[in-house]
Amino acid sequence: MSETPMNNDAAAVPDVATPSPIEPTVCFADFGLAPEILRALTDQGYVHPTPIQAQAIPVVLQGRDVMGAAQTGTGKTAGFSLPIIQLLLAHASSSMSPARHPVRALILTPTRELAVQVAENVKAYAQHTPLRSTVVFGGMDMKGQTVILKGGVEIVIATPGRLLDHIEQKNVSLGQVQMLVMDEADRMLDMGFLPDLQRIINLLPKKRQNLMFSATFSPEIKKLANSFLQQPVLIEVARSNATAEKVTQIVYKVDEEQKRDVVEFLIRQRELKQVIIFSNTKIGASRLSRHLEQTGIKASAIHGDKTQQERMAALEAFKQGEIEVLVATDVAARGLDISDLPCVINYDLPYNAEDYVHRIGRTGRAGASGDALSVYSDKDERLLADIEKLIKQDITRGELTGFAPRTRGRDSERGERSERPQRGERVERGGERSERPPRRFEGEARPERPARSYGAGPLPRREKVDPWFLKPYEPANAPRREAAATDTSNGPAKPKQKIAALLGGLPKPAQS
DNA sequence: AAAAAAT
After folding, report:
1. How far apart are CA A110 and CA A390, in angstroms?
2. A190 CB contact with strand B at below 7 Å
3. Is the CB of A137 under 7 A from strand B?
4. CA nearest A433: which of A341, A327, A276?
5. For domain A28-236, which CATH number applies: 3.30.1360.60, 3.40.50.300, 3.40.50.620, 3.30.1300.10?
């Protein structure tokens, strides 16, 4: 409910149309929220809180720390931002002076997109209040962010790295922060943000309210919670590893080379107009997206090699319905506010079984039904077994009735050619794509490839290229991030092993 | 074995 619904048409049912039948009907008006906040909620047509909101809002208003187990789409964002706004409102200043607008609430998120979404929600909820909020994240010019920070804001939503950058440059001070939110804390640990988190937390006043949200409860998360939450109230909405019951899951076993065509077939057969396809690799996402476009399906890729502008443009185009297919890496698996999709497709089975749950959590939300389709091949049997073990259910094996594997004559050459990574090939830019007519490479050399890349003569036979070769060269002995290492006595992203040490020298469990 | 994030 806090999350903006995908379909904004008037006929769309609000996320929370049906309050739990056991509970008496609760309204936002029952929480004693300020009229300005209720007005913002009314503006958006929200009346009834989701379960997590109903639980979290009163607890946060009491000033208690919270450990929340909830995924995106449960209304978590409103669950913490509404009471935060309410609490800050009690001492809001209407003065224009920056000094009167110190940062009082800090919300940290693992990914940039999530930060933007949370910020949009906060802004909407606080629109009738004098509270100011802003979002800071990497990949964008610092200047605009700096101006806003220096102007004074009460609520900052940030990804950790860029926030530290601003702190170091004295663009922002966190000495007055009263409330800290760590959203998707498990994800932040996975991504090696712990050292950054520690540095940020060290800059906050000791006396503050802490809210931590996590989709899973690994031992690491529990340690983190113990280290900085004070007698937290545990709020749990749905079991973290439970798959939504309304999601119909089907897996299709196909030849590895056919995955692409099968995905295309599924999109056409089901006439999918809003679907996310997950790929395990950035390059795979780009290629599949390009292939779909060549077959006339409006598609775009989103992953970490895209510029921030491209990522935001793709997301927006998808939300607007300008593109039908968003091919994504796991940048979009969690947190991203793309929900209520009728269908999600796994082009690759995720290496982490848990990610499967997160991926298919994009569909079948709020009582709606959804389909999660996956294609896999022989070599993925193990991954599938892991997934089924985690979700404790067998997934239906689907039959591809009507799918005609392409018997390619010379056509196969085109297929292979466009699939192979080209030397010097870059991830395609979002902008030029729409203007580019579908192209075929009927065996001819791509015009833009410089001939000297391969020297004179026929193209060398290309063996199966490992995409990692296409990464920029990094000397193995480069003294990477040494400064950061000395600073925190912790290197970069070495999550699991270092966590115990960071959390205060807990005795290591005796195991190898 | 990959991806995400500060540059």
Report:
1. 24
2. yes
3. yes
4. A327
5. 3.40.50.300
- For chain A, the structural domain boundaries read 28-236, 242-400
> Residue written as tokens 């115990």?
A500
Question: Cα angle vertex A447, ends A441, A448, to 5°?
Answer: 120
> Is-same-fold flag (A28-236; A242-400)?
yes
What are A285-341's pLDDT values in tens digits? 999 999 999 999 999 999 999 998 999 899 999 989 999 999 999 877 665 667 678
pTM given for the model: 0.69
Q: What is the pLDDT of residues A56-104, one digit of tens each?
A: 999 999 999 999 987 666 788 999 999 999 999 987 766 656 667 899 9
Q: CA(A493)–C1'(B2) in Å? A: 14
Say yes or no: domain A242-400 is CATH 3.40.50.300. Answer: yes
**Strand B contact nucleotides, protein CB < 7 Å:** 1-7
| A282 C-beta less than 7 Å away from strand B | yes
Secondary structure string (H, E, C) spanning A216-283 = CCCHHHHHHHHHHCCCCEEEECCCCCCCCCCEEEEEEECCHHHHHHHHHHHHHHCCCCCEEEECCCHH
- Counted residue by residue, chain A has a size of 512
